[in-house]
């Protein structure tokens, strides 16, 4: 069985978005660009129909499907970061032309939602010491872009 591959629906910007996404993450590449061979609501013959690409080793497909559907924050892609520099770099890139939300969520210029999350936060939230987990969760809820040092300070009390 092939791996499950998310299909991201765009209105004419599938290739542009895929090229942007692969520029942000290591182990990423454009694998195949397939043009339309017939006219559809998503494009004309010769225009990009779909882009198969890899983000940090995982397969994705970007489809120029036309204006019928758009993204919703009910689906987001999570990028787990080890350092504040990684968070800051990705936040700046994804936020350019996009919209900052809360708790590390950001919507990019194409309307796709991302969570730019410190790896440590995932562990801190699972701590059996519920007081620590509550402190870090409370701190996170007051942030837009996540700050590892502030989250760690809350975790440590």
Estimated share of beta-strand residues: 25-35%
Structural class: alpha/beta
Instruction: Tell me how many strands there are.
Output: 8
Low-pLDDT sequence parts: none
Whole-number average pLDDT?
97
Distance between the termini: 47 Å
- Tally of separate helices: 5
Helix content: 25-40%
What general outline do the C-alpha atoms trace? elongated
The Rg value, from CA coordinates, equals: 18 Å
Order of helices and strands: EHEEEEHEEEHHH
Main beta sheet, described?
4 strands, mixed
Strand order of the largest sheet: 1-4-3-2
Summarize the structure.
With 157 residues, this protein is α/β, with parallel strands linked by helices. It is built from 5 helices and 8 strands, in the order E-H-E-E-E-E-H-E-E-E-H-H-H.
Can you walk through the features of this model?
- The mean pLDDT is 97.
- By secondary structure, the protein is of the alpha/beta class.
- It is elongated.
- The strands form two sheets. The chain has a four-stranded mixed β-sheet with strand order 1-4-3-2, covered by helices on one side.
- The chain is built from five helices and eight strands.
- A hairpin with a 5-residue loop joins strand 7 and strand 8.
- The longest helix is centred in the middle third of the chain and has 12 residues, at 84-95.
Note the topology.
Elements: E1 7-10, H1 14-24, E2 29-35, E3 48-55, E4 58-64, E5 76-81, H2 84-95, E6 99-100, E7 105-107, E8 113-118, H3 119-124, H4 130-141, H5 148-156
Parallel strand pairs: 1-4, 5-8
Antiparallel strand pairs: 2-3, 3-4, 6-7, 7-8
Helix pairs in contact: 4-5
């Amino acid at each position: 069985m092939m791996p499950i591959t998310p299909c991201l629906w765009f209105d004419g910007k599938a290739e542009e978005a895929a090229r942007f996404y692969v520029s942000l993450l290591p182990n990423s590449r454009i694998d195949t660009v397939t043009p339309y061979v017939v006219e559809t609501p998503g494009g004309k013959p010769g225009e990009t129909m779909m882009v198969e690409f890899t983000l940090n080793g995982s397969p994705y497909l970007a489809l120029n499907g036309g204006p019928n559907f758009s993204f919703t924050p009910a689906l987001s892609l999570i990028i787990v970061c080890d350092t504040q520099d990684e968070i800051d770099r990705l936040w700046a890139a994804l936020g350019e032309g996009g919209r900052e939300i809360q708790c590390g969520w950001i919507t990019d210029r194409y309307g796709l939602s991302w969570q730019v999350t410190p790896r440590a936060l995932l562990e801190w939230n699972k701590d059996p010491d519920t007081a620590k987990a509550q402190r870090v969760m409370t701190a996170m809820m007051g942030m837009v872009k996540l700050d590892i040092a502030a989250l760690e300070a809350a975790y440590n009390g």
